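Record type: monomer structure entry
Structure origin: computed from sequence
Chain ID: A
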Amino acid sequence: MHAPEQEVLEHAITWLQAGHRVHLCTVVRTWGSSPRLPGAMLALRDDGQLLGSVSGGCIEDELIDRARNGRLPEINGLLEYGVTRDEAQRYGIPCGGRLQIFVERVTEAGRLQPILDSLRQRKLLRRSVRLDTNEVVLGDAMPGTVACLEDDWFHHYFGPQWRLLVIGANQLGAMLASMAQALEFNVLLCDPREEIRAQWQVEGVQWCAGMPDDVVLDIVPDAYTAIVAVTHDPKLDDMALLEALRSEAFYVGALGSTLNQAKRRERLRMFDLNDEEIGRLHGPVGLAIGSRTPAEIAVAILAEIIQIRSQQRAAALTSQSIAHALSAGSVCAS
């Protein structure tokens, strides 16, 4: 499975190479309740065909109408939706919601190829577009930064697809893999037990051969990686955790009761993991929602992963806002 942004860019490049006019539409700012976060994007063809989403429905219909009737910007521009109660109702935006969309006319596939290359290589990239001239500048980015407007520039940040490494091909592992794919995670799975692997039926999962500790090292976990061990076999789960807790993975969890987790933490200390590293372990894994069945436990685990991801995004957004405020203050002071 590809990241949504990757599919949007691949289609945009294909359309450009076929001679179509193409616009990229990206959510850059929201107020109140809104159906999509800043950074959500779609590619729109001159005949109204599109891929991606900025609202989930009605705004897409309006953009399609603009494309078919030649009412999209020749270079780029900003469109705002949900300003009035009537518009909010017409476009299906939640009560009080408002969003601003940056519409960019893309004329050459070469302008998008570096972004696609960066996504495929799991690198972070900042793409800045000057509003009045369509000048594009590429640069490095920090994890968690989000699309924003700054003076005459629109900054869009492209990062790797979120991925989940599951240790254990049992029933819970299958539920996790299936649900995580629906949430647009790239799912990797490791289980060296051949008799367990032979029963696997979930499609779309990348199997990783080898022992869990080697697999964790091989995938090089980054800030977009979650790792969950669910074999219930300490020999396998602990092997994965020894390397996962030392990695940059934003979430590391393991199945097991409170008592078993206490014993696990003691075992991890015997392998020279420090308290900070061991403290990163989410165990018992998942939110405490009273889950009992494999499906319910999978929901609890994924809910906690999403919660942690959202908290980190919020923290990064706060840091980004503070940095912008300080930068603006220094400019004013000068």
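Annotation 1: The longest strand covers residues 22-31.
Annotation 2: Residues 330-334 have pLDDT under 50 and may be disordered.
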